[in-house]
Design goal:
2 domains; yfbu gene product, domain 2; mainly alpha
Amino acid sequence: MQFTNEQKLIAAMLAEVHQTLKIRDGVNSELVAKALFSGNEWAIEWEHGFLLDQNESPPHVKHVVDVLDMWSFIESAYGALKDADKKRFADGANFNGKPSFPGFDGNNEAEYLSAARFMIEEMRRFGSFKGRADLNSHHPTLDTSKRMLEVFLPIRASLGVAGRPLMSADDLIAVFHARKHPGNRAA
């Protein structure tokens, strides 16, 4: 959803009137105002799609959804692994510690970071990330997450099918192997 500056001003003023009059008609005017002021206009369409024609989400929003979905599965799967599988994951993925969503870089990926925060904090989506102190990775993550998604998305298609609710240790290893840039992988 794209607004002109004039439309943003009108929508913001209407949202303020809507809030002041405490109108309860199914329109979340607080979210509308926050979306307008934070540059996350796409959220208005997501939240109020019943009023609007559905358009394709902006590419950065689609990427954020895929990344948050992937990390939700990664964190859940790791938490459910037995100790032996956690060790196998650590060795196979060359990763120490508990995997957790790193966030997006506030300097170079601000649009992605803003969308993630808005989804989690304002739209109450991806609740497992709610309340985390910082979603700012302080380093670029887009290239890494794109490589990880190339491996994860085919796995994702099979999750929830035929009694397969979680990723396996092998799935986690494959996704984490993609974190490393191909030029830095051992032959």
